[in-house]
Amino acid sequence: MNRFDKTNRFFNFIMKFRLSLIFTLLIIIICIFGIHSVDDNTSKKQLESLENAIYRGVVQCYALEGTYPPNLDYLKAHYGLTYDSDKYFVDYQIFSSNMMPDITVIPIPKDYNNANNLFHSVTEDFADEP
Q: Which of 3, 57, 69, 96 is a plausible cystine mate for 74, CB 3.0–4.6 Å?
């Protein structure tokens, strides 16, 4: 040990443990990508589950009542359909009581509500100006 050595001690520390640091960073990166992958798969399964629940409710209503439900609220009230309307947009188009309705489920992006609120606040600010 040389007291008069002017080399950077932090750099020496990193050089001693560089393999450990690289391995730790690699593990952290793999974990982050794994969590992101699980989140994507979960979102896809939730969308698929909602579509299946709506179709099951529609078919059950037709089997029991002889007509398709007139709207989505009817399914919610009489057949127990629940979903997060902030997360999914459901388009339910009925043509007649004896034809299967056209059902489209669209996931709403996570930043949509924030962007929509920002848009409305900016347009209100401009509307207030003379």
A: 69
